[in-house]
Amino acid sequence: MITAQDFLGAATRAGFDFYTGVPCSFLTPLINGVLSDRSLRYVGAASEGEAVAIAAGAWLAGRATVVMCQNSGLGNAVNPLTSLNAPFRIPTLFITTWRGEPGLKDEPQHELMGTITHDLLRLIGAPPAAFPNAPDQLDPAFADAIRAMAETGLPVAWILRKGDVEDGPLDQPPIVPAAPGRRDRFEQGGERPARAAALAAYLERADPEAAVIATTGKCGRELFTLEDREQHLYQVGSMGGASGMALGLALNTARPVVVLDGDGAALMKLGTFATIGAYRPSNLTHILLDNGVHDSTGGQATVSEGVDFAAIALACGYRYAASCDSLQGFGAALEAAYTLRGPRLIHLRIAPGAMDKLGRPTIAPADVARRFKAFVARAQAAPRP
């Protein structure tokens, strides 16, 4: 058995300095230890998949990351681990608990996952290792993990068992509720613009210092087709993860951060709105291009037509939210947003459909990630939230 301080001391020596995750009773000592250490950053995620995306964004800002969750949440994490971390070659130290360990009494919902945890991790390319539960194991284990991540660019998984870490107290600073944010409405009710036109309008007004994450599907493809820039990251897979990536990035860079999101993706990870609103990075702008359909898969309708995303953002703690349905309104919303502290949401309703000659990024995802990371690295230290 080790203490949380044993673990955190070794992690700090190894360079790990950013933590995110979803609690498990087995993880209580570690999470309490991180939260109680004011020199460390822990972001409590709404889901395990969101935590993986947040850590990916923090890695793009140069942080060495740790994701912690219960193995019951592996199902939520499989998608970003396989379709975000794998193609972009984004490493993280992934610590999962072993609920339902064969031979130990546990709740019935953990039985199946307890049986398949190791096999599942191997199958998704994150070979598991036992959590180092003795003080003299910690430094060698971190060294092995760093070496493996450097060789593969992929996550390394440690499996933590009950009792591996000694119980410890929690000294968590309170999360202060956000003051009511400002809302603007720029709806005109006419013909809605195409996504490509909205992206072009954004590019005309884009801050050249901004780091931009475009959600998966035709949004990223259209952005690349219009103009490829070093500060663009074209997300593939990991639907719904773009806003989490943007949060992890925004908390760790002084640069403006923009996420170009879609309605289907936003609905899939709606909990990320609450996480963004709670941590309130002042440099984050969340642009939601809402065409009401899953455009990349045949145009099936989403439920976004009845969703007021601006109201949701404000209810979650965003400092500004605007709704618009025209290029003129979009321009006015951008101008207003740029004068205010974030996080800011601009919800633009657009028409379904895509560019006739729609290309795909010709740069491999791993190369896009490293080009983007190099761009971000040229910024100054992260701002205060």
Q: What does this entry look like structurally?
A:
α1 crosses α6 (135-152), α3 runs parallel beside α4 (74-88) and α7 packs parallel to α13. This protein folds into two domains: 4-160, 3-Layer(aba) Sandwich (Rossmann fold); 182-377, Rossmann fold (3-Layer(aba) Sandwich), CATH 3.40.50.970. It has 385 residues and is an alpha/beta fold. The chain is built from 14 helices and 15 strands.
Quick overview of this protein structure:
The protein is α/β, with parallel strands linked by helices and 385 residues long. The chain is 40% helix and 18% strand. The protein has helices at residues 4-13, 28-36, 48-60, 74-88, 111-123, 135-152, 195-205, 218-226, 242-250, 263-268, 271-279, 309-316, 327-337, 365-377; strands at 16-21, 41-44, 64-69, 93-97, 128-130, 156-160, 182-186, 211-214, 232-234, 257-262, 284-290, 293-294, 300-301, 320-324, 344-349.
